[in-house]
């Protein structure tokens, strides 16, 4: 059973809605305390909450209650009972939106850095959905109450264009294009290092990291993922590239680029905030540190998006400028 991305192990006895999770310890797992192991496996969990759940009997190893200090071993079956996250009623908030295009079927918005696409654990307000509910009289209802209009998502600190559906017909029409991979999306990124070839393809399966469930990793057990890239401009120790996705996996661009030794500049999760990637010393290392101060997030922007319009059935394409933080880094270079 997949691990839920939105779980909170606190106050287990008081919550009637429970979710069952089963984890089979992989063959090469080294000995580790049960509470430490589960903290890494369950998103949004802390060691203290996990330990409380173990003590309360909500964690069974091979069908038996054990202590938090129990050393996990390969092949053990861990059954966990967790509360489902509380229902969140998204409400409209007067948050400025950069609307690139709007008609009676859809909107194209340029999402800023730091904005989450929809309410979820830890981010119940200040999201794109909250802004959309204030801006629009109507949004699609295909997804849950917390995701009206949302056809696809961008990471919190990835900027760029998103298409939003105003009704269910438009939503289904757009979602079908995403499913068939006929949506034309182009990302621009500033990455560490220089490429040996001006363009190429990264093909590597992606899945949840076994060491940290909050991360995605290249793994043979993961889902097929393919990313195409093209060099736009090279600098001393950074490169501006254009990317297109053939698949749409979580964190795909960021993980793929880190996998080939070119993490996205400024990415705090996948190694993009260390100048060791460029082997820099002296003044060049200092320059890299100065540039990282300008780029407090991953330098990744969803620059263009193109699709067939739901009603006109015509091909449309929208473009956006790079955000100011990425422009500042490039200007300095």
What is the fold's blueprint, element by element?
Blueprint: E1 18-24, H1 34-41, H2 47-55, E2 59-61, E3 64-65, E4 77-83, E5 99-102, E6 106-111, H3 128-135, E7 159-165, H4 168-179, E8 184-192, E9 199-203, E10 206-208, E11 216-218, E12 226-234, E13 238-245, H5 252-259, H6 282-294, E14 300-308, E15 315-319, H7 324-332
Parallel strand pairs: 7-14
Antiparallel strand pairs: 1-4, 2-3, 2-4, 5-6, 6-7, 8-13, 8-14, 9-12, 10-11, 12-13, 14-15
Helix pairs in contact: 1-2
Structural shape: globular
Number of H/I helices: 7
Protein structure class: alpha+beta
- Pick out the low-confidence regions: 1-17
- Mean model confidence by pLDDT: 88
Instruction: Provide the gyration radius in Å.
Output: 22 Å
Major sheet size, sense and barrel closure? 9 strands, mixed
Q: Tell me the distance between the termini.
A: 48 Å
Number of strands: 15
Beta content: 25-35%
What sequence of helices (H) and strands (E) makes up the elements?
Answer: EHHEEEEEHEHEEEEEEHHEEH
User: Portion of residues in helices?
Assistant: 10-25%
Quickly list its features:
333 residues, alpha+beta, 4-stranded antiparallel sheet, 7 helices
Characterize this entry briefly.
This protein is α+β, with helices and mostly antiparallel strands and about 325 residues long.
